[in-house]
Design a protein that fits this description.
alpha/beta, Nucleotidyltransferase, domain 5, six-stranded mixed sheet, 22 strands, about 30% helix, nucleotide-binding, transmembrane
């Protein structure tokens, strides 16, 4: 192994498949290389633009890339959820190219030490439980069979993460890149606050994560998430963050809800719905697909290009009037502590960046956001007729990345972003007074460049920070890399959970190998000790078929097969009664197969003398059926037994004897203590009670053992392999 550690994360989002590659120094190398300040910092994660790969289902692009040595994260687009109806195809048709890219980056000798994660988000959350689990199982099987990456537990490494977890990872990534974890003194926002808030807008959901000010932190302590990280020197840092997620508040789901509202308002008889959020003259299907003007497809949307009306009609989608059970709430009745924008400065990614910069800033120019300039640009664009916009697309007026689909969607997305930011979350409308009616970019006059000013404005959309793309997948890698630092003595673990001291019950560990003291599973490669790295699927299939046939063949046939195998495994003559030989059949190796094996229940009540195991002789007396026994009152009768005890005496001491002879019977002898003998005729045991002591045969003895011929139930109950008793080792 080299000096680098690697990792793989698959982000199964609703609108994209993307692979990110990261790497960091192993802790020993980092400690040797770092100075005093470096040792008090988190592990340094490295990435490059060419370590990212994005594909769509059905695409079969093959791009040659030079082998690079880094850590990998995969992001899915438009989402693995599209394979819900054919999960068996997700590997060959979708994951194969992503895994190939990963394997070309991670050195072969480090692959088995490289964890792989698939963390599915909003698109997979919308699937049914059964569909979702089948898909995750297929992904896990394919990843294990087609890569050597470390995948010890599918339940931990391949899962659908809640929106709050996605938001927390994004918060970690943002503050990691801003260096607030390592140099908080450089980001003093006042009031002892130094971290940045995080906003993410995806296709299906939206997230917010921030550390409230001191007052709100104390007031809403139970609503916060405790995050614990570990520096290179082993020291710990803790943060308390509020995180929440709004499912169906992503741009695609919001658009779906918007169209449904248009249909409800117009009525079912209306087949052409006026849409102020589409450019004038643009006609589309309800799902936004472009259609020809003469098409007779029904129903359709017809753009009117009225952006102010678009803002008005998208506002109700915020659901601001929903009942709030835990005040205060922002959207949809979901509790959020009060946001102090004096110290809470937010960085937005994904659609917050794409929609504000992709068209209106001509191709990802890194400029700060101001409300009024942005809204003016949107109005100019969306008031054009569709023919003019198409001409601009062909002339690359808005850059080479803008196509008809993006131009079609941008007016609705812009209205939704503006409503979410300013009417929903409450971000101040910076720049409103300074640039009223102006078409110039007000950034220079209102806000300095984000990096130069330290992102101290209330909201700043970004795509990259210091040339590194801001992605919540980076946050997952930061957390994992931090957890790999050796802990100091009695140090608390890395991870996150409820905001309580120590390790809360819901604490989330970054990886399965970090779970505390699970005996036999301490190694990162514990799964290799249990079974081979790859088991051919055909062997597993054959095992299942054999097992199914075994249970379907009928009880009598199973018994015969069991007995034949058991006889082959058990060799040797009967052992001495004082030293029962350990049983070697299947019953010993797999005791759970012997459902009727006897078990000894020791029940003592006050006043009863102790029982001892020993050997006794039998006088061969006949059994007497069914009389009530005084022994019942001294606790000798196991609960729910079908047998009864009969005796005219209550001896001060009794001795049980279990005879585990090869004949398969149990001898139960009782002798009195202090010279007091107990009449054998008083003992009654029915074979129906074999759940505890069956099969029991009482009768004449031969050399200290019960004779099978003397059993009164012999003629009614045939011996079965499942009734063979187990030796009490």
């Amino acid at each position: 192994m080299g000096k680098w550690r690697y990792g793989v994360v698959l982000d199964a989002g609703s609108s994209g498949t993307r692979v990110h590659v990261y790497r960091w120094l192993r802790n020993a190398a980092a400690r040797k290389k770092g100075d005093v300040n470096d040792l008090k910092s988190l592990p340094e994660i490295k990435t490059k633009e060419e370590w990212v790969k994005k594909i769509h289902p059905g695409e079969h692009r093959r791009e040659k890339r030079q082998p690079l040595r880094h850590v990998l994260t995969l992001r899915l687009s438009p989402g693995v959820s599209s394979f819900a109806d054919r999960p068996e195809s997700v590997g060959s048709e979708h994951l194969a190219e992503l895994l190939d890219h990963a394997k070309s980056i991670v050195p072969l000798e480090d692959a088995r030490d490289t964890p792989i994660f698939l963390l599915a988000t909003a698109g997979m959350r919308l699937l049914g439980n059964l569909e979702r689990q089948f898909l995750l199982d297929q992904i896990c099987s394919y990843a294990r069979a087609n890569s050597d990456f470390l995948l010890p537990d599918c339940g931990v490494h391949i899962q659908v993460i809640p929106g709050v977890t996605e938001g927390l990872y994004g918060w970690i990534a943002t503050n990691y890149l801003m260096e607030t974890f390592d140099a908080p003194e450089k980001h003093d926002h006042g009031k002892g606050h130094h971290t940045y808030g995080f906003l993410d807008m995806g296709g299906a959901s939206a997230q917010i994560a921030f550390a409230p000010n001191a007052t709100e932190t104390e007031k809403h302590a139970n609503d916060l998430t405790l995050l614990r990280l570990r520096n290179i020197d082993g020291s710990v840092q803790e943060h308390r963050v509020f995180v929440t997620s709004w499912l169906e508040f992503g741009v695609n789901e919001a658009r779906r809800r918007y169209v449904e509202a248009l249909q409800a308002a117009a009525g079912p008889e209306v087949q052409e719905l006026p849409d102020p959020c589409l450019p004038a003259g643009l006609r589309t299907t309800l799902d936004g697909k472009d259609i020809a003007p003469v098409s007779t497809a029904r129903p359709t949307l017809l753009g009117t290009g009225q952006f102010d009306e678009c803002l008005r009609q998208t506002f109700p989608l915020l659901d601001k009037d929903a009942p709030c059970s835990d005040y205060p709430c922002l959207l949809h009745g979901i509790h959020v502590p009060a946001i102090d924008f004096d110290v809470n400065h937010f960085i937005g990614i994904s659609e917050y960046w794409h929609t504000t910069h992709e068209i209106f800033e001509i191709g990802y120019k890194d400029k700060a956001y101001d409300f009024n300039t942005y809204q003016e640009w949107v109005k100019i664009f969306c008031s054009q007729d569709w023919a003019s916009i198409e001409d601009g697309i062909h002339e690359y007026k808005w850059g080479k990345k803008v196509d008809q689909q993006k131009a079609n969607e941008v007016c609705f997305k812009a209205s939704w972003i503006i409503n979410m930011l300013h009417d929903g979350i409450g971000v101040p409308r910076v720049g409103l007074e300074d640039t009223s009616g102006s078409l110039h970019n007000g950034t220079k006059e209102v806000l300095a460049h984000g990096k130069e000013k330290g992102y101290l404005d209330a909201f700043q959309p970004v795509n990259k920070i210091d040339s590194t793309e801001v992605s919540w997948t980076l946050g997952k890698i930061v957390l994992y890399a931090s957890s790999q630092v050796p802990a100091e003595v009695e140090a608390l673990p890395v991870g996150f959970g409820s905001n309580v001291p120590g390790v809360p019950p819901d604490f989330q560990y970054p990886s399965v190998e970090l779970l505390p003291d699970t005996e036999g599973f301490h190694s990162e490669h514990w799964h290799d000790a249990l079974l081979p790295r790859r088991i051919p699927g055909i062997l597993l299939f054959l095992f299942i078929v054999v097992l199914a046939c075994f249970f379907l063949c009928g009880r009598n046939r199973r018994s015969r097969v069991y007995l034949q195998i058991n006889n082959l495994l058990r060799r040797g003559g009967p052992s001495h009664p004082n030293h029962p030989k350990k049983r070697k059949g299947i019953s010993a190796m797999l005791p759970f197969l012997n459902r009727n094996a006897p078990s000894y229940e020791r029940v003592m009540e006050e006043g009863a003398q102790d029982f001892e195991l020993g050997l006794t002789d039998s006088d061969g007396s006949d059994v007497d059926g069914g009389r009530p026994s005084e022994a019942d009152s001294i606790g000798m009768r196991p609960p729910q037994r079908a047998s009864s005890w009969g005796s005219n005496s209550n001896p001060p001491g009794l001795k049980y004897t279990f005879d585990n002879s090869s004949s398969g019977t149990i001898g139960l002898g009782i002798s009195g203590g202090s010279g007091i003998a107990m009449d054998r005729a008083g003992l009654v045991v029915r074979t129906e009670s074999r759940d505890h002591l069956a099969p029991i045969a009482l009768g004449p003895t031969t050399n200290g053992r019960r004779s099978r011929a003397g059993s009164p139930t012999r003629s009614h109950h045939q011996k079965s392999p499942s009734m063979t008793p187990l030796t009490d080792d």
